[in-house]
Specification:
This protein is mostly helical. The protein has one domain (2-235). Helix content is 76%, strand content 0%. The chain contains ten helices and no strands. It starts with a helix and ends in a 5-residue tail after the last helix.
């Protein structure tokens, strides 16, 4: 859990700095910065998506995940939780036209969809080595500055998601780590999970650029389905 705590602190510091900076940025500058962030997020998404060794796996993962996500209404749940937090913490941030809910959901998805989240948390839970999460913390810290400056202080609430999601993975790895075996970035299920996550990141980027609103939250099951598909193919003796 050490790495997760470091990550949360980095986002806290970055979010506070970004909130202080954002109040001093003209609206046009905020829009330009947001556009730049959206472009970078798209590039990251493409890089992640191209890690797949068989594009059919992330494709089916996203399709199945989207059906399950719509059925379970994950996006609605995230937004409802965000509004609940907004109702109880909005007075901390003051009156601001920038939505606390949007900042919370967007930052939570960006900070928790990616290979470093899973790999880092597993490594931290298995061996106590939080090197990967330390690297992720540095990246998230700088990203949170930009997000808070443009989306608003609601980005700070994504710390809750980091602690619950990333910390939960670390705790599960501590309990069931032996069943995972050796895990690296080139492990097949990690590659396909990364690719599926990259498609979700692309959806986030399109939303930040206001080109297309995609209910990315409803696609989240894809990140879990991808490694399950790899395991199923392995049991069937099919190489990817």
């Amino acid at each position: 859990m050490t790495g997760t705590i470091i990550n949360a602190i980095a986002v806290l510091i970055g979010g506070l700095l970004g909130t202080l900076l954002g109040a001093r940025l003209p609206e046009k500058m905020r829009q330009t910065v947001m556009g730049a962030i959206g472009l970078v997020v798209l590039v990251v998404g493409f890089q992640m998506a191209l890690s797949s060794q068989n594009i059919l796996i992330p494709m089916f993962s996203v399709l199945i995940g989207g059906v399950l996500g719509e059925w379970w209404r994950i996006e609605d749940g995230l937004n409802a939780f965000g509004r609940w937090l907004e109702d109880r913490t909005g007075h901390w941030f003051g009156e601001d036209e920038r939505s606390v809910t949007r900042a919370f959901v967007t930052a939570s998805l960006v900070f928790c969809v990616g290979p470093l989240t899973i790999l880092g948390a597993i490594q931290d839970g298995l061996t106590g080595d939080y090197q990967l999460l330390a690297i992720k913390s540095l990246l998230d810290g700088f990203t949170s500055i930009a997000f808070a400056a443009t989306l608003g202080p609601g980005v700070l609430l994504s710390i809750i998601t980091i602690l619950v999601y990333q910390g939960g993975i670390a705790l599960l790895a501590m309990g069931f780590g032996s069943a995972l075996g050796e895990v690296t970035r080139q492990t097949p299920w990690v590659l396909e999970m990364t690719a599926a996550g990259g498609i979700l990141v692309l959806g986030i980027g399109l939303g930040l650029l206001e080109l297309k609103r995609i209910r990315v939250g409803n696609l989240l099951p894809a990140v879990l389905i991808a490694p399950l598909l790899v395991a199923l193919l392995h049991l069937l003796g099919i190489t990817i």
